[in-house]
Amino acid sequence: MDDTPGRGGNPPLAPEAARPAGRALDRQILALAVPALGALVAEPLFILVDTAMVGHLGTAELAGLSLSSTLLTTAVGIFIFLAYATTAATSRRLGAGDRAGGVSAGVDGMWLAVGLGAVTALAAYLAAPWIVDAMGAPDAVAPHAVAYLRASAPGLPGMLVVLAATGTLRGLLDTRTPLVVAVAGALANVALNALFIYGLGLGVAGSGLGTALAQTGMGVALGVVVVHGARALGVGLRPHAAGIWRSALAGAPLFVRTLTLRLAILATVAVATSLGAVTLAGYQVVNVMWGLAAFALDALAIAAQALVGRGLGAGDVGHVRAVMRRCLQWGTGAGAVLGLVFAAGGWWLAPLFSADGDVRLAAAVGLAVAGACLPIAGWVYMLDGVLIGAGDGRYLARAGVATLVVYLPLAWAVQRYAPAGAAGEAWLWLAFGGAFMLARAATTGLRARGTAWMVLGAQR
To answer: Reduced to 3 states, what is the DSSP secondary structure of residue 240?
Structure first.
């Protein structure tokens, strides 16, 4: 394909005056990012509610939730390509004027999500005791971790459909619909958890069951929206092997990239587990808050994905550069603000999750360290969004492997030499939030300085 903007099937560049800039660009970014934030925080909000409710059942229950919820978010997270790949593909087709093609890609992605979700749910349920044991859970913690993992597993197909459907809608520049569904799901999750944990006395398993039902409802709701849009455009709804295979191939590099990130997280929780129940429980509190902050920053990255993809689809390279610069400013600034909230509010946030004084101290110290690292994370997430929007998954996969190789020895050093309790919590978050994020910032920053990723995006 001709790489010249406006040729090789791409429409010509938009007139300079028609390209949003300055405050107009800010409004465009925020119009996508703010609704996307609500949808993104659905999963961490589920875990946050679970953590707050289960935390008052006891330290062993909270530690069990910490371990199993990390495993579940890993299971969902490694398939995040279902959202990212469909966002990028749909937005580029939208920029090229092929709206029906973008929706068709989304339908194929949803069928892929159903299949992957069913297999993953079955594997999680059957292998729960072995997985928990392999993570080194103490005897008092293991039964609670297994109970939550098995009760939550049936919600995995619904959550993967949420990813694929949300990616399609984001690519069409619709972030409001996922927001409405996410809010409804979060409210349903609160009510179901309260009913099952306290009303029916199901404990940790009740928390997992409530979350699974809420996730399934969200998947059905978003699936209906995409199906309605497909019918309006005359797009077929039956699964197409070729389309599903294209979705899988497009997502494979992002799968590898996400797998490296999740392996780093699993290594981190394994280190926390080895440092004792107090450190693991404290880690859960910090990790929940970090997840909320990360998804808040990722909302801006989603705006970057959609706008970069559409810009490259239309051949508007100048606008793509402007979007990247502005999103980086927003991302690092938002990270700094959230970091201050973490550092200043840790001592007040920790008591919301545990009555154990040692857990509170570990959580507060961990929040302070994590807060100092959030501006770096903001930079990383923005560049991730830019490169994903350009379809530069292969580079991100290679960079993910490189950063994992850097991080694993540091995680091992924390496990080997760090003490238990608050000090170990601090070293753990310094390694993950500091060193790991700096390694990611270096690899993505080097790529973004060049132009190869823009050429790839224009060709797709």
So the answer is: coil
DSSP string for residues in 18-69:
GS--THHHHHHHHHHHHHHHHHHTHHHHHHHHHHHHHHTT-HHHHHHHHHHH
Count Cβ atoms below 10 Å from residue 279 Cβ, excluding itself.
28
Residues 6+ apart with CB under 8 A from 70: 265, 266, 269, 287
- Structure token digits, residue 337: 């603000």
Domain spans of the chain, in order of start: 21-459
Specify whether the CB–CB gap between 201 and 215 falls below 8 A. no
Count of CB atoms situated within 10 Å of the CB of 344: 13
What is the arithmetic mean of pLDDT over 265-278?
Answer: 87
**Integer Cα distance of 440 and 384 in angstroms:** 9
Residue 224 tokens, joined: 């209906």
pLDDT attached to residue 233: 74
At residue 128, φ and ψ (nearest 5 deg) are -50, -50
**Three-state DSSP state, 8:** coil
Rounded to 10°, the helix 357-389/422-429 angle is: 10
Least confident of 1-5, 190-194, 307-311, 450-454: 1-5
Q: Is the pLDDT of residue 311 over 90?
A: no
- Contact indicator for 139, 55 with CB cutoff of 8 Å: no
d(CA 45, CA 371): 19
Question: 3-state DSSP: the chain helix, strand, coil percent, rounded to 5?
Answer: 85, 0, 15
